């Protein structure tokens, strides 16, 4: 009896944080928009056979110069992300990355701790990113349009 309860708790625990990445296919493609005084571009891939989407991001300053890149993987557990300077030198140590733990996926929203993507009714994507800098917490909101 005790082993049956333990097994059930393990199964419930594994399934409690499993989200369906196939619901996130609305992200696939190239998105552009303003942010941090410059402009953003994001590119998302289709999920692979393992349920992993990959993506990249680049930020250009107002003069149109690349300031930094991001590369990431999104799966049912959340996002793992690495930053790179314009010269492709990394921000994080070689084996380190930034993690955003998955909270929920729906047909129009991906919610992670400190980061969310939402498809709006007008076809734009809204990104909300919560940043902590020098003890202050601020949520940045970005609106991107699908590039055709």
Describe the fold and architecture.
With 148 residues, the protein is mainly β. The protein is built from one helix and ten strands, in the order H-E-E-E-E-E-E-E-E-E-E.
Fill in the keyword field for this structure.
148 residues, mainly beta, 10-stranded antiparallel barrel, 1 helix, 10 strands, 52% strand, globular
Write the layout of secondary structure elements.
Elements: H1 2-16, E1 29-35, E2 38-44, E3 53-60, E4 66-75, E5 78-85, E6 98-105, E7 109-112, E8 115-119, E9 125-133, E10 136-146
Antiparallel strand pairs: 1-2, 1-10, 2-3, 3-4, 4-5, 5-6, 6-7, 7-8, 8-9, 9-10
Taking pLDDT < 50 over at least 5 consecutive residues as the criterion, the unreliable ranges are 3-17
Strand arrangement in the largest pleated sheet: 1-2-3-4-5-6-7-8-9-10
What Rg is obtained from the alpha carbons, in whole angstroms?
17 Å
Counting DSSP E segments of at least 2 residues, the number of strands comes to 10
Order of helices and strands: HEEEEEEEEEE
The largest sheet, given as strand count, sense and whether it forms a barrel, is: 10 strands, antiparallel, barrel
SSE-based structural type: mainly beta
Strand proportion: over 45%
What does the average pLDDT come to? 88
Number of helices: 1
> Portion of residues in helices?
10-25%
Task: Tell the overall outline.
Answer: globular
- The rounded distance between the terminal residues' Cα atoms is 58 Å
